[in-house]
C-alpha cells in the first residue's frame, strides 16, 4: 500500500500564486520584455531656397511704389506753391450779318470778340490750337480755327473769331424755333471753344491739356425783317473746364 507524502505537490492543479505578485519562475513582471526603443534620428530643418525671380519682382514693385509716392509729393508741393487756376473767357461782343434761314437751310456771318484772361501770378499759358463752333441750341451752324497765341502772367488778350455759313442744312424744328425767337426780337446763339494749351512756370511745365469753353445763350438782336444784329446786354462770362 503506497503512502502519500503530504509535502509533495498535487499534480494536475495550478501552483499557488507567488505572494510577491510575480509569476513563478520569472523575474520580469510581463510575459515578454518590450522591444528596445527605436533609434531616434534628429532631422535637420528644411529651408526653402528663395526664388530670385520673385525677389526681383518684389524689389521692382517697391521701387515703382516709391517713385509714385515721391512724384505725387513733388507735384503736390508744386501745386501748393503755384496754385494754378484755369483761364477766364468771356464774350465781349457778338454780331450777325447776312443772316437768312428758310427751307432747312441757314446762311450768315458771325463775328465774336472774346476777352481771355490768365489769372495766374506765376504761370504762363500757350494756346497751340483753338477750334471754335457757333450753334443754336444743339444744332451746329458754322466752325472755324483760331491762330495760336500766348499769355503772360495776369494778362488779358482779345481774341476774335469769325464764322460763315452758306446754305448749311438744319432741321425743320430749328427753322421754326429761330423764327419764333426772331418774332420776339432776339435769337440766342452759343459759342464753343476747344483749345489745346500748355501751362508753364519757369522750368516746370505741364503736358498739353485741353481747355473747353462754353459761352451759352448769347442774345443777339434779330428780327424777322432784319438780317443783321448785335449782342444784347453786357459781356457774357463763359464756362471753362480743363
UniProtKB/TrEMBL annotation:
Compartments where located: Membrane
Residues that span the membrane, as ranges: 60-82
Coiled-coil annotated residue ranges, if any: none
Pfam families: LEA_2 (PF03168)
Cellular component annotations (GO), alphabetically ordered: plasma membrane
Protein's GO biological process: defense response to other organism
Domain Late embryogenesis abundant protein LEA-2 subgroup residues, every copy: 116-210
UniProt cross-references to InterPro entries, sorted A to Z: LEA_2, NDR1-like
Mode of membrane association: Single-pass membrane protein
Keywords: Membrane, Transmembrane, Transmembrane helix
Keyword Protein biosynthesis applies: no
Keyword Transmembrane attached: yes
Record protein name field: Late embryogenesis abundant protein
